[in-house]
Every structure is written in structure tokens, then in C-alpha cells.
Amino acid sequence: MTGDTPIQTSSAQMSEKAAAAPTSAPPRLTTLILLSALSVLPVNMIVPSLPKIAAAFHADYALVNLSVAGYTIVTALIEIVAGTISDRYGRRPVALMAVSIFIVASVGCALATNIGIFLLFRAMQASIGACFSVALVVVKETSGERGAASRIGYVSMGWAIAPMVGPMFGGLLDELFGWRAMFVVLAILGVAVLALSMRELRETSARASRSNANYLASYAQLLRSARFWAYTLCMACSMGTLYIFLGGAPLVFGQSLGGSSATLGFYMGMVPAGFILGSYLAGRYASRHALSTTLIVARLFTCAGLLAGLALSMLGTAHVLAFFGPCMFIGIGNGLTMPAANTGVLSVRPDLAGTAAGLSAAMRLAGGALIGAIAGLFLAQSGTAYALFGMMLVSASLALFAAFYAAFLDWRASKPVF
């Protein structure tokens, strides 16, 4: 891994200008938000219906649960491949192909006659995950650096809201029409987004700027960049903080809320609500400040909130809001972090923006899950509020360190060469 020299940065900036010259008017932000939202809506929309799906296919619940866990794994793999393909063949064809496969897969899930066919089409549904990376790259290629961070903030709002309403929407459809209706509705949404994308989404990458290098060489170039690692590790540790919360909150506060899943879910919803607020703030204000400033402020928000929560827990404050209130800053910080860090990742090598988006997304998911799993081992031994806050603070502090490192690398790269 090496740092980015001023010469490399200058070359990257020249490539960025070439890549950022769209061949036609950029798509409306609404289109990109819908692409982003559809890419995550199916992830947990079917969760309330898993028992009914298992009963319909006479299948073991653990096997049916692969339709959620396996979906996430396939999505991460698709993001890596789709990002690189979009660098070579363009953003528009990748997005249109992903949505088309998603429509076919949704119809296949609705008509499946056994669990094997259902899981096959469910895996194919994960193709829609490519659209989130494509949406990010299109924003970057049609906006300036600060403008991109702002627009990605609004795109991230759609990305955050969709999985929040997904289970509720899916449960309602199941209750009224049966679980297969969910996939019919997803297919209809896919057709609508495909029609909108065919009309709005024009190619944004100049043909001359597309990489002709082989895929492995593209990954290697990014993995040798210190800036790519700094921004990606910042996002991974930020997601790790969230995963620690998601795994530890039910353990620490599940019983104290009377065992009510609804009450627990309500309070845990404060964190994604914070993410939406942070994304909105990024959309409003990120264009006015440098990426490094936004990133550092975001991570300081999270660390300050968790420090306050740790102090309250060590003082013995047992009120539920003394726990979930400070945790809301996880969402606010992450909502500010993701637009700025994603913009930074895409600016490392503008000619490999798709590859960078996909690789970084996969590393963010894997890194966050790994941090959450390691913390879970310790929480199983000491399920206390201050232990949970301590582990979240460690992960958040690592993200803050990565943010400072990214800021240092950006400052060093911006220094003039004499």
C-alpha cells in the first residue's frame, strides 16, 4: 500500500475531468434516489413472511433464512463485479441489465414451486445491488467533488428509508394478499424504475476514459492507494459501530423493556432515523465544506455521543433514553460519513470509479460484519451497557483515526509541486 503522490493526484484529476464530462444531461436526482432505494428494499422486506414461506415449501426455517443472509453475501459479490464491468462497458448498460434481471427474478420468486427454485431466483434478485454503486458513480461523474457529497447525501436518504419501511410494507402485503404478492409488487416497481432509467439514465463515462486493464490489475491499483484504504476503513469501522449496536442492544436492553419486541424496535429505530437526519445534513451542507472537514465532524459527532452514553452508563443511569439517545449519534455520524467517504473513494481513481465503488462497498460490509462479530464474542461474556458503549467507542475511534488519516493524505496531495 502506498500513498498518493502529487504527480499521481494530478494525473487522477486530469482523468477525473475527462470522466466527468457527460455525453448528455445528467439524470434527475429523483431517478438516482429510486435506483438506490430499490437496491436495498428487497433485503429485509420478506423477513416478516419467512415462517409462511417455510410452511408453503415445507422447508426448514434455517434454509429459508438463506434468502436474507445469502442475499446479502451475493449482493456484496455482485457489487465488486458490477463496478468493474461498469468501468469497462458503461454505467447505463449495467444499471439496465441489473434492473432487468431483478424483474425476471422477482417474477420467478412469485411463481416458485419449491424452495430450491425460490432461493435461485432470490439470489438473482441481488443483481439490483449493482444499482447503488452505479448511482454513486453517476453522481460523482455529473457533479463537482463537494456537489457530489451533497447529492450522495440525498441518495443515501433513499438508501436508508427503504429498508426501514420494507418489513412494514412487506408484512402488510402478506397480510392482505399473501407473501407472493411482495414479489409481484417488487417486479412492478422494477418495471417502473426500468422505464424511468431508460428515459433518464444516459451514459456518463466518456468511452475514452474507460479502463482497458484487466480486472485484477484494477483492483490492485486501488488496493495500493492509501487514500482508498483510509476512506474505506473509515466506512467499515463506522458500519462496525452500527453492527455492534444492532447485536448488543437487544442483549443489554431486551429484558428491561418487558420483553416487548415492538418497544425495542421503536427505540432501535432512533439510529436509522439519525442516519436519515445525517444524510439530510450532508445533502444540505456538504457542498459548502471540504470532504475531510465533513468526515472529521461526522466522526466527532459519533464519538461525542458515545462518550456521553458511556459516562451515563458508568454513573448508573438506567433510563432507556440514556442508552438510545446517545446511540442516535451513531446514525447521525454515519449519515454524514457515507456521502463524504464514498465521494473520497470515487475520487481516488476517477477512471476506475465503478471498480472503487463496488470494491469499497464489499469491504465496508465485510469489515463492519467482522467488527460486529468480534464484539459479539465479548458482549456474550459481559452484557452490560458500559461494555457495549466501550466497544462501540473503540470502533468509532478507529473510524475517527481513519478520517484524520484521509484528511492528512488529501492535504499532502493538494500541496503544490515545485
Automatic annotation (TrEMBL):
InterPro entries: MFS (IPR011701), MFS_dom (IPR020846), MFS_Efflux_Transporters (IPR050189), MFS_trans_sf (IPR036259), Sugar_transporter_CS (IPR005829), Tet-R_TetA/multi-R_MdtG-like (IPR001958). It is a multi-pass membrane protein. It is found in: Cell membrane. Residues 28-414 form the Major facilitator superfamily (MFS) profile domain. The chain crosses the membrane at residues 32-50, 62-82, 94-113, 119-139, 151-170, 176-197, 228-252, 264-283, 295-315, 361-380, 386-408. One of its GO terms (molecular function) is transmembrane transporter activity. GO terms for cellular component: plasma membrane. Its main location: membrane. SUPFAM superfamilies: MFS general substrate transporter. Signal peptide: none annotated. Keywords: Cell membrane, Membrane, Transmembrane, Transmembrane helix. Resistance to tetracycline by an active tetracycline efflux. This is an energy-dependent process that decreases the accumulation of the antibiotic in whole cells. This protein functions as a metal-tetracycline/H(+) antiporter. This is MFS transporter. It comes from Rhizobium jaguaris. The lineage of its organism: Bacteria, Pseudomonadati, Pseudomonadota, Alphaproteobacteria, Hyphomicrobiales.
